[in-house]
Amino acid sequence: MKIRLGIPKGSLQDATLQLFAQAGLPIHTSSRSYFASTGDPEIECMLIRAQEMARYVEHGALDAGLTGLDWVVESGLEVVTVSDLIYAKQSREKVRWVLAVPESSSYSKPQDLSGKIIATELVNVTRNYFSSRGVDVRVEFSWGATEVKPPMLADAIVEVTETGSSLRANHLRIMDTVLESNTQIIANKTAWADPAKRRKIENLALMLRGAMEAKDRVGLMLNVRKEDLERVLGVLPALKRPTISTLSDPEWLAVNTVIEESLAWEVIPRLKEANAQGIVEYPLNKVVM
After folding, report:
1. How much is the pLDDT for 90?
2. Residue 158, beta-bridge partner list
3. Quick one: DSSP state of residue 112?
4. Contacts for 271 with CB less than 8 Å, ≥ 6 apart
5. Are strands 43-49 and 156-161 parallel, antiparallel or unpaired?
6. What's the distance, CA 273 to chain centroid?
7. What is the DSSP string of 166-216?
8. pLDDT tens digits, residue range 42-66?
9. CA 16, 21, 26: angle at the middle one, nearest 5?
């Protein structure tokens, strides 16, 4: 049994490969091939543009793949959503497809664009957005560099953004959010109905989510006298409750927990003040919730 898995080629590629490596399944690619290998003999990988992923998954050429919710919605195809993975090209946040117009324009609401030209890669979603508002516009497919098209080549655009910096650099202002999107693992319906393939895909999703949960978190281990335990626990933020175990000396306890890495700078000195000893901070690969 083999799983044919689609890896998004393009803007999501580097972030996806890093996530797989942290999950314990490095993917080895070549600049001269669209096929990639892994250490798992049951997983075959192919690099596919995120825009096309749903098509090949729905048709069965791929058993599963990683792509954006935006491209699944745009395709209108029927695939199984296995898991959300909230990461993008630059961050661990959702991205937004936004309706943007020139800063100097008088447009203030979607209705003001009636009869105007809208440039976008997300054609179907954009048409549905304006249609649901009763606004008649002309939606044109954009092959790229969409931000530079207003006002000469289009009156407005629908474009994806993480921070909005590219839009501001091109003197555009956001009028509205058309769609929020995030990376997803999707599966072919037939493959999902196969118990062996489904188990493999679910395990893959589990490990990838675990790797994501571990990002920006660290583990903390420390020792503390029983009489100081409450003071230490009062300092610690934790996922749920820290693990507490006894040491060979019955008067001492070991405490193990996970915290946000950004908090360690403040937390560790406070733990020392609370009489914690032997404090160890260590990196995490996966946190399975």
Report:
1. 57
2. 99, 120
3. G
4. 220, 222, 232, 235, 236, 279
5. unpaired
6. 38
7. HHHHTTEEEEEEEEEE-EEEEE-HHHHHSHHHHHHHHHHHHHHHHHHHHTT
8. 999 999 999 999 999 999 999 999 9
9. 100
